[in-house]
Amino acid sequence: MAVTGKLLHWALGHIPRPWLIRLSMQTHRIWEPLFRGQGFTDPINGRQYRRFLPYGYGKLRPNALSPGTLSLERHRALWLYIQRFTDWWKSPKDVLHIAPEQIFHKLFRKNPQWKITSLDLHSPLADIRADITRMPLEDESFDLIFCNHVLEHIPDDRKAMDELFRVLRPGGSVVLQIPLDIDREKTFEAPGITDPKQRAELFGQYDHVRVYGMDFFDRLEKIGFRTQKVYVRDRFSADEILKYGLDAGEIIPVAHKPRTK
Questions:
Q1: Which of 28, 108, 126, 167 is the one with CA 20 to 30 A from 99?
Q2: Are residues 34 and 91 in the same domain?
Q3: Does residue 66 sit in the same domain as residue 82?
């Protein structure tokens, strides 16, 4: 176990994240049993583990990555929110999944109640290859949209928000998880900065174009959405946050399209 831990720590520090995730998806069934035990529970597969793995850009977050599903804190929080606090999973819905996450790609499609359409400009998982700011989709054609960790990559995020509002049916909802700095009032962006190294230093990742502050919700409201801030610390007990490896400071942004204009 000690040798395995050292190898994983080295990999997390030296292998680029996209490659590491692809490698993990192909090999995790081999090494996942090594971590089985009591201590942490992955709510997505229901299995218990002695610990979760460290993960992150720069400084690694302890107990962030589940050995079983390769889910991060935000994936597990979203899954628990869907299951506990919404009726989405048990309701017939046309669902748009933008930039489909590996962990949810197959899982969502196993739900017989959901008809899934996935969209991304580059992902091989996507049904439709398209830009989120120009989606080749009919108006008001989806009941539920997942657009997680996407908008921080989009130069014209307001145009993307407009498109999400357009294709969402009245009464529908969109989940918009982002890297959100809850201590920052105003979003910081500098469109003139294109150097990946500078972007990593300023925005936290080489391909991010901004750091969102709490005015993220104002941006959505100006488009026409009604917004909801789902605070993890308010929805789950301290024991559950530890047990499931959640981020107590996370807010899940959920936006709703009004039924009437």
A1: 28
A2: no
A3: no
